[in-house]
Write a structure and sequence with these properties.
This is FadR/GntR family transcriptional regulator. By secondary structure, the chain is mainly α. The protein is built from nine helices and two strands. A hairpin with a 3-residue loop joins strand 1 and strand 2.
Length: 226
């Protein structure tokens, strides 16, 4: 069956929030309406608004500050956007794996030399949360996402970070709709530990090798699901 690539609700919401910022000429530090108000304004769920804001935070458009709300960070932030239409979902996912090897491999090598102590602590914390939800057989998608976001943020290359985030979101969309998604995270957990260890100890080649081994498993599981 041909793959019809639809734009996700939170992506549409993110675009509307950006239009709101620009049409009202919001400046850095200006406060946006609350999540609840944005949800009502755009006719979507709070969950979609929350995901939209998370995406905009990664793009440096907004910043969510405890006690202050949603603040404009950079209304003129540059971003990369692309939409690819491929008929076979299997082909699409396997090609994404190839892209991940290149982009994430480069980010991991950079992180091995650029990660700050604070980022390393966050990665370790993410892993502990990841392990606890895995033991409790709870949904580990968010824990996995938090680990990877911190890891690629540690590359200190915003363009690379944004490109990886786009690829990663496509994968997460696939895992969310697959009832066996948690099994893939259980199978690849130890690779996350290896990647963290090698990044922390500034061993970029070994960190990249661990990533490639993890993606080997992902590719195998994707093929099995078709």
């Amino acid at each position: 069956m041909p793959l019809v690539k639809k734009q996700l609700v939170h992506e549409l919401a993110a675009e509307e929030i950006k239009r709101l910022i620009r049409s009202n000429k919001f400046q850095k530090g200006d406060k946006l309406p609350s999540m609840a108000d944005l949800a009502v304004k755009f006719g979507v769920s709070r969950t979609s608004i929350r995901e939209a804001l998370r995406q905009l935070e990664a793009q440096h458009f907004v910043e969510i500050v405890n006690g202050k709300g949603i603040l404009v960070k950079d209304a003129n932030a540059h971003q990369l956007q692309t939409r690819i239409f491929i008929e076979s979902e299997l082909t699409f996912l396997l090609q994404l794996c190839e892209v991940r090897r290149g982009l994430e491999g480069q980010a991991i090598e950079l992180a091995a030399s650029r990660a700050t102590e604070e980022q390393l602590v966050r990665m370790e914390t993410n892993l502990k949360i990841y392990e606890s939800v895995k033991i409790l057989s709870e949904d580990s998608v968010q824990a996995d996402l938090d680990f990877h976001q911190t890891l690629y943020e540690a590359s200190h290359n915003p363009v690379l970070f944004k490109m990886i985030a786009t690829v990663y979101e496509s994968f997460n969309e696939f895992w969310r709709k697959n009832e066996n998604s948690n099994s893939i995270f259980e199978e690849t957990y130890h690779f996350h530990e290896d990647i963290y260890f090698y990044v922390k100890n500034k061993q970029p080649e070994l960190a990249r090798l661990a990533l490639n081994q993890m993606i080997d498993v992902v590719e195998s599981r994707v093929k099995e699901l078709f």
